[in-house]
Design goal:
By secondary structure, the chain is of the alpha+beta class. The chain is built from nine helices and 29 strands.
Length: 511
């Protein structure tokens, strides 16, 4: 079909792929009576993704950090206040940025305390937690530039949420351990004192934080920091919410992804005990909250990175049921009329390849096929790319019984690698005797006959079936899985964040 343009010349795909901003691109299309070919939109959507790279200097603590104190008394009460009154009100909700402060990771903002005579704070409510309409504040990021030698942040915490915050100065953390905020529903002030004036970028990462403003001295300046990286959204379960992290829930794997990739603005909808379908006890599953928490908040004038983190909570459902559920999320995006790049990632299974529930392996394969058939990217953490290891195949030299933990092969197997039989059976090699060519493995789920083919496949994010409380001595689960035998430790969240970041970058290299 011929595409005819009027009034102006259409920008070429090359213009977009070399970094033209999507908003400018859309403006250039105004006045045309035809929509450009789909591949031009694909290039427009991906233009900022291809600029992402692992930030080697992030996740570093300052050599000489400032002094931090938390008090019910504001040390800068006589200074300048920059709070919710500096932002406009749109349909009863606060605008999410101003000339003085950038507020990232947020969605809907309401004012808490205004009708009760209490001091006001801004409540980020972009995570729908229950089907009855309940919301909780989710991770929020406050970013600004200031010359102040000292500033203070007004905060409030509700009991039971585990409110924490992390502070970055010029992209270095003051501490890699989150600071807890007293959960007494009272106003507190987090004071940061450098001892000297200097131009600095400040990023405050708040977990379940109610924010009331920033205070600086009368002679100081404060302006909003620029947003770096694409606008990003993620929907997930308790893994995305930082559960299991002994250092602090503020350090969930999505936050590590933000740090590794340099993405300032990630709106996170994470609710434990939910999945595409699962939502016990009135909790809002992905189906219920995807439109409000993700699609409705996506901008209309630029592309968004959308990440769907699949959940082990859906293992009680059939392949057909989860396929239908994921299809509905894709349809919501397609019907939005907005620009997006979608990434779907495997459920996080705290077991080696041969010990994973078979239904979740089936889910993984089916949803990978579905995602790719819709033109989206699947991030496979169950059979990841093999990387530098050269794939090879061999055969077994003796029958293998169901649930066997050893097997003999014609060629030596690689210890620490995953293999797959032709029928799809996966297993992890714990060790391999190069003299006898007998390998010790985690588990062979289905019986195999002499001569069956084995092929090296990508590793899993987690190997082994131990945890920090009950180590088994093999695989990385001993250090990456918390003592609840399910959720990641801080190391596990960091590992998953780095792993997902690496796989995302590999997937966009060819865009």
């Amino acid at each position: 079909m011929a595409i005819i343009y009027t009034d102006k010349t259409a920008p070429t795909p090359e213009d977009v792929s070399t970094g033209q901003d999507v908003a400018d691109y859309l403006n250039d299309l105004s006045g045309m009576d035809k929509i450009p070919p789909e591949d031009m939109f694909i290039k427009a959507k991906s233009s900022r993704l291809t600029e992402l790279a692992i930030k080697k200097t992030d996740l570093k603590a300052m050599d000489s950090p400032p002094t931090i104190a938390i008090s019910t008394t504001n040390p800068l009460a006589s200074g300048q206040a920059f709070d919710d009154s500096n932002r406009s009100v749109i349909s009863g909700r606060r605008a999410i940025s101003s000339s003085n402060l950038s507020i990232f990771n947020g969605g809907y903002f309401t004012t808490f305390g205004v009708n009760s005579g209490q001091e006001q704070v801004v409540y980020s409510r972009n995570t729908t937690t229950t089907t009855s309409g309940g919301n909780i504040s989710s991770t929020i990021r406050l970013s600004f530039l200031t010359s102040a030698s000292q500033f203070s942040v007004k905060v409030r915490a509700f009991a039971g949420f585990g409110t924490e915050l992390l502070i970055k100065v010029n992209d270095e953390f003051v501490s890699l351990t989150p600071t807890a905020v007293p959960e007494d529903n009272a106003i507190h002030y987090v004071s940061v004192d450098f001892g000297s004036s200097e131009s600095r970028r400040i990023d405050i990462i708040g977990y379940k934080l109610l924010f009331g403003g920033v205070y600086v001295g009368l002679q100081d300046t404060i302006v909003a920091a620029e947003r770096r990286g694409p606008k990003a959204f993620m929907i997930g379960d308790s893994f995305s919410d930082g559960t299991g992290n002994e250092v602090g829930s503020a350090l969930s794997f999505p936050i590590y992804m933000q740090e590794f990739l340099g993405i300032d603005d990630l709106t996170l909808s994470a609710v434990g005990g939910t999945g595409l379908i699962r939502g016990d006890g009135g909790k809002a599953n992905y189906q219920f909250r995807f439109q409000r928490d993700i699609v409705d908040l996506m901008p209309s004038d630029e592309f968004s990175l959308v990440w769907i983190s699949l959940s082990i909570n859906d293992q009680i459902y059939t392949v057909e049921q989860v396929e239908t559920a994921l299809t509905s999320l894709f349809d919501m995006l397609d019907n939005s009329g907005k620009l997006f790049s979608v990434f779907v990632s495997s459920p996080t299974i705290a077991d080696g390849a041969g010990l994973m529930p078979e239904i979740l392996i089936d889910h993984n394969e089916a949803l990978k096929t579905l995602t790719q058939s819709r033109g989206h990217t699947f991030i496979d953490e169950i059979t990841m790319p093999t990387g530098a290891i050269t794939p090879h195949a061999t055969t077994i030299t003796a029958n293998v019984a169901q649930d066997a933990t050893t097997l003999s092969t014609f060629d030596n197997l690689i210890a620490g690698a995953n293999y797959r039989f032709d029928d799809g059976t996966l297993f992890f090699v714990r060790s391999s005797d190069t003299a006898t060519r007998i390998a010790t493995v985690d588990n062979i789920r289905t019986a195999q006959t002499n001569g069956a083919n084995i092929t090296l496949v990508g590793s899993t994010y987690l190997t082994g079936n131990g945890d920090a409380g009950s180590p088994t001595g093999w695989g990385n689960s001993d250090v990456a899985v918390s003592s609840d035998s399910l959720h990641p430790t801080n190391f596990g969240h960091k590992l998953k964040g780095l792993n997902c970041s690496r796989l995302l970058l590999e997937s966009v290299e060819g865009i």
